[in-house]
Design goal:
The complex is a heterodimer.
Chain A (H helix, E strand, L loop, with lengths): L1 H5 L1 H18 L4 H26 L2 E4 L10 E4 L1 H24 L8 H26 L3 H19 L5 H32 L4 H6 L5 H17 L9 H7 L2 H26 L4 H24 L3 H18 L9 H33 L15 H15 L5 H15 L3 H26 L19 H12 L4 H8 L10
Antiparallel strand pairs in A: 1-2
Helix pairs in contact in A: 2-3, 2-5, 3-4, 3-5, 4-5, 4-11, 4-14, 4-18, 4-19, 5-6, 5-11, 6-7, 6-11, 7-9, 7-10, 9-11, 10-11, 10-13, 11-14, 12-13, 12-17, 13-14, 13-17, 14-15, 14-16, 14-18, 15-17, 15-18, 16-17
Chain B lengths: L6 H10 L1 H7 L5 H27 L5 E7 L2 E6 L2 H24 L6 H20 L3 H19 L5 H32 L18 H18 L8 H4 L5 H9 L2 H17 L1 H6 L3 H20 L4 H22 L2 H32 L10 H4 L1 H15 L5 H16 L3 H26 L16 H19 L7 H13 L2
Antiparallel strand pairs in B: 1-2
Helix pairs in contact in B: 1-3, 1-5, 2-5, 3-4, 4-5, 4-10, 4-15, 4-20, 5-6, 6-7, 6-11, 7-8, 8-11, 10-15, 11-14, 13-14, 13-19, 14-15, 14-18, 15-17, 15-18, 15-20, 15-21, 17-19, 17-20, 18-19, 18-20
Classes of the chains: A mainly alpha, B mainly alpha.
């Protein structure tokens, strides 16, 4: 335990885990504790990032046992980026959550339960995600995916409404099914090769049919968890009916966990057959189209934002179609940046949407233009996040899309290029709907002073949105960090 | 990096930096907002004056920031950039004064002036972009900054117009994005270099380059309102008058025309573009746009719509002059970039005054307005005569050089085109002037009594009208638009 306490890799798992237990045991102090743990977690993640950037990939064998027997924790550039993303977004979301669930006089039991349950669930989720990004072994990945799933389902039903419970049940079933499929793949691998660590598996020669079968099973499970079309059925309801901070975490971070595992397995362990890559890319393209069309039709703001997740995740899966081509390195870089971009912008957007719905008293897009109170800062944050989700320069989304399209163009994949461009146009079309509603004033007969109402808890979404938009200015540094340890086959 | 090499950055920041401050101001702090706006605008004009002086002396400014490996954000100040920056900074100052007067009692002024500043920052960025990538960044920012201005009134009609505006401009932006990316993968750079960067590739990639040219011009042609991509422009007329003025004179349509200039001169190079046979179809398209815009303007009764179709027509003079390929015509095109801006902004401010002061929004209501608002109508008359091309006003100078360029090339159809266009200009502007000055007001005026229009609304169009006159009269002075364009053409045409 001593070595564990000193190593940042170990700390990233231990701190949130202890925090989750403490928050569970001591509900009254849970909110403050979650903020403290979030801060500590960010500090450790930043320290790890500095270490990885200066020294190179970090590695830690728990208890001194290395692979293939023991549990290895390792961090390369990709892991560090994901850890930082989780730490920053998680911390900012828990600030808004602290304000949203704050005690009010005369509150009902449900409100008290939300306040008590959010911190431990969030910290458990953080434990799972941190461990996931540090794992180098398919069984540990399975375990961490399960932890993440349990915490997520808890977060999804936190609001306690009937719709949220129904959606949460479907989410639970989908998530369990996904885990089982993943476990099936793990079992196939273990029976064939007798080992589970990623590096060992990658070093094995000639992919056997059983490896392909295992990859298909695992990818199917991950596609279910990351809501790749047509396995997205659970996502819109689950994300749209959760409370805003929970939606932000689910959409920004949880989905990325499964996506991250898919990226790792696809690029570093197996050399997938072309038809599989093509299939994943096609499903991604279908998701872009379907998610966008549903977002165009969505009547509620949060539902629109949730459908947008389906479309945006689809675009990231399009990068899989370019694996093995000369454009693959750029495409993978693009995929990672799109993951970051979506996480930051979508967290901002869900938090802002929650605030807007609260101010207007509902989140029906068609009636938002009648709202007399317009929370200025939240709207501004929503608008800024829109810029990044559409992919306009110099935002994170732009950099990601640019790299993905560069990969498609150099590989001669004109069809994928067209998907990215068309998806961008559709994103602009559906995100313009809520924004236009808030710029309309001829249905309001009231003094407009209320428009500029804002409060302190509007700052986290604003900070996230600003980060997403200004991200392009640190794109070079991000790509440098990503290349450390050559994850996804990206050469430094 | 010396202090003075940061001058382009400082010019950008005068408007980019002031925007967030204005957003944060309370709605009631009108004085502080006006002071901030004017201070920034005056500072910008001063910095630009200094910049032009230094550039004329041969100073070179460039600021680079690495964005992606091999892809930089570049701000630079070549003479072409200075031309456009000078136009935008001077007209920003004038339009700011006008807007303060125009929106005196309006709602959402902090929002308006914040986006107004962002819009000018984007225009300045477009002007000083040192490569196509940087150009794209600011081109998109311009779309985003102008959308809230177009829908400023917040009515259903304004939102509908805004939707159409967004669809066109974001679509054009996407096409330009594709073109930029493609150019980058083909050449490994997107830098603007006099005489172009694709010359070596023509032998191997002729077809790809031809398609690339169409893609780039297509993306830029939306904002430049080339037929058939012009439909958004007349619809965007629902915007408040100062916004229309800025959109038509400096910001949006000019960004498109300016981009076409950069692509032809500094991405392809005029010689390469002509050798590949790309410029003749573009010149033909510009000619069609010139005539089409004028014909449509003839039948519009709504004053602002008539002006909008006139813009469609007039902006294409710039494209025409560039696409003709002759250096003389190029001088006309570049000078017209400035001249059209001065003339059109005058007319839109006047149209705004007529609507505000008298409730006159249609040409048919214009009878006798000259006597009721003499200052405004004198400015309008000067600008309209200049548009028609009456010497010695600014418009005459541009048309003269365009025609001379056409003759020099042996393209005599250009003469016919310019004469036809001038006749059409006269046909849609002179009736307004006649009505305004010589007709008696028939029936009851839309708003009886004296117009309540302050000096802040009357002085700006008079000032720009004076500039229209000066640009024509003193066309040969060293820092006149014409003098400066000769300087630019020497760079783009002579090694």
């Amino acid at each position: 335990m001593t070595d564990l306490a000193l190593d940042p890799l170990g700390l990233l798992v231990v701190i949130p885990l202890l925090g989750a237990l403490a928050a569970f045991a001591w509900p009254r102090g849970a909110t403050g504790l979650s903020l403290l743990v979030g801060l500590a977690n960010l500090a450790v993640a930043a320290a790890l990032a500095v270490k990885v950037a200066t020294v190179g990939p970090a590695h830690h064998a728990l208890g001194g046992w290395g692979a293939p027997l023991g549990i290895d924790l390792a961090a390369d550039g990709l892991s560090v980026l994901m850890l930082l993303m989780t730490a920053v977004i998680g911390l900012l979301v828990s600030f808004t959550a602290a304000a949203a669930f704050a005690a009010t006089p005369g509150e009902d039991d449900a409100a008290a339960r939300r306040r008590a349950c959010f911190p431990p669930l969030w910290l458990l989720l953080l434990t799972g995600l941190n461990a996931l990004f540090l794992s180098r072994d398919v069984f540990n990945l399975y375990v961490t995916l399960e932890i993440v799933a349990l915490a997520s389902v808890g977060l999804a039903v936190l609001s306690g409404t009937r719709a949220a419970l129904e959606a949460g049940l479907r989410y639970l079933v989908a998530s369990l099914l996904g885990s089982l499929l993943f476990l099936l793949g793990v079992g196939l691998i273990y029976s064939a090769y007798g080992r589970l660590d990623l590096d060992g598996l990658a070093a094995l020669a000639a992919p056997a049919p059983v490896a392909s079968a295992a990859l298909v099973a695992m990818l199917a499970g991950l596609a279910l968890k990351s809501a790749l079309f047509p396995l997205h059925f659970w996502l819109p309801a689950a994300h749209a009916n959760a409370t805003a901070p929970a939606s932000a975490l689910l959409s920004a971070l949880v989905v990325k966990g499964a996506l991250y595992v898919a990226l790792r397995l696809f690029t570093e362990v197996f050399a997938p057959a072309d038809p599989l890559a093509l299939l994943v890319g096609l499903l991604g393209a279908a998701a872009v189209l379907w998610g966008s069309l549903e977002a165009l039709r969505a009547e509620r703001l949060k539902l629109l934002v949730a459908w947008s997740t389906v479309a945006q995740i689809g675009l990231i899966f399009v990068a899989f179609a370019l694996s093995g081509t000369i454009g693959s390195a750029a495409a993978w870089q693009g995929a990672v940046l799109l993951m970051l971009a979506h996480a930051i912008a979508k967290a901002a957007m869900f938090l802002a949407a929650g605030r807007i719905a609260e101010a207007a008293g509902h989140d029906l897009i068609a009636r938002l233009d009648r709202a007399t109170v317009r929370p200025g800062l939240a709207l501004f944050a929503f608008g800024l996040a829109t810029i990044s989700l559409i992919g306009l320069p110099p935002s994170a989304g732009f950099v990601g899309k640019w790299l993905l399209m560069e990969g498609a163009l150099t590989a001669g994949g004109w069809a994928w290029l067209a998907v990215a461009l068309f998806g961008t146009a559709l994103t602009a079309a559906y995100l313009a709907r809520p924004l236009a509603a808030f710029l309309r004033f001829d249905r309001v007969r009231r003094p407009l002073a209320d428009e500029y109402a804002w409060r302190l808890s509007d700052l986290p979404p604003l900070a996230l949105a600003l980060m997403a938009v200004a991200f392009g200015l640190v794109a070079t540094q991000t790509l440098d960090l990503l290349a450390i340890g050559s994850p996804l086959g990206i050469a430094p | 990096m010396t202090a003075s090499s940061l001058l382009p950055l400082a010019i950008l920041l005068t408007s980019l930096g002031v925007a967030p401050l204005i957003f944060l101001l309370r709605e009631e702090s009108a004085r502080l907002r006006t002071a901030l706006n004017l201070a920034a605008a005056v500072l910008k004009v001063a910095l630009v004056a200094w910049l032009s002086w230094r550039v004329a002396e041969g100073a070179v400014y460039e600021v680079r920031l690495a964005f992606l490996p091999g892809l930089d954000l570049v701000l630079q100040a070549d003479p072409l950039a200075v031309l456009f920056v000078a136009l935008s900074s001077v007209l920003w100052l004038i339009t700011t004064i006008y807007s303060v007067g125009y929106l005196e009692r309006g709602d959402h002024r902090s929002r308006f002036f914040g986006f107004f500043s962002l819009c000018v920052a984007a225009t300045v960025g477009v002007a000083m972009a040192g490569n196509l990538f940087t150009f794209l960044v600011f081109y998109e920012l311009l779309t985003l900054a102008t959308y809230p201005l177009v829908v400023h009134r917040g009515t259903a009609e304004a939102l509908r117009a805004g939707r159409i505006y967004l669809a066109y401009t974001l679509g054009g932006g996407l096409v330009l994005l594709l073109g930029t990316l493609w150019l980058w993968t083909l050449t490994g750079t997107t830098d603007f270099v006099p005489r172009g960067i694709v010359g070596d590739l023509v032998a191997d990639h002729r077809t790809a380059l031809t398609i690339l040219f169409v893609v780039l011009i297509g993306g830029l042609g939306v904002k430049a309102a080339l037929v058939p991509l012009h439909a958004w422009l007349p619809i965007a007329m629902v915007a408040p008058a100062p916004v229309s003025a800025l959109l038509h004179a400096v910001a949006v349509v000019k960004a498109g025309a300016f981009g076409i200039m950069r692509v032809i001169y500094e991405v392809f190079g005029i010689d390469t573009a002509m050798a590949m046979g790309l410029t003749q179809p573009l010149a033909a398209l510009a000619a069609v746009t010139i005539i089409y815009g004028s014909l449509r303007a003839l039948t519009q009764d709504d004053l602002k719509r008539r002006l909008a179709f006139s813009t469609v027509s007039q902006v294409s003079y710039i494209t025409l002059g560039v696409a003709l390929g002759s250096p003389i015509a190029a001088i006309g095109a570049l000078a017209h970039l400035i001249h059209q801006g001065l003339m059109k902004i005058t007319m839109f401010m006047c149209a705004g005054n007529l609507a505000e002061g008298l409730g006159v929004k249609k040409v048919s209501q214009c009878a006798g307005v000259g006597r009721r608002m003499p200052g405004t109508m004198i400015a309008f008359t000067a600008a309209a005569l200049a548009m028609i091309g009456a010497p010695p006003l600014a418009g005459f100078v541009s048309k003269w050089y365009l025609a001379a360029g056409g003759i020099g090339q042996g393209d005599l159809w250009v003469i016919a085109l310019l004469m036809g266009s001038s006749l059409l200009n006269a046909a849609y502007f002179l009736p307004i002037l006649h009505k305004a000055w010589f007709d008696d007001p028939a029936g009851a005026p839309a708003t009886p009594g004296r117009p309540r229009i302050g000096w802040m609304l009357t002085a700006p169009p008079l000032a720009t009208a004076a500039l229209v006159l000066a640009a024509g009269l003193m066309a040969n002075a060293p820092f006149s638009p014409l003098g400066w364009t000769r300087f630019i053409v020497a760079i783009e045409y002579i090694d």
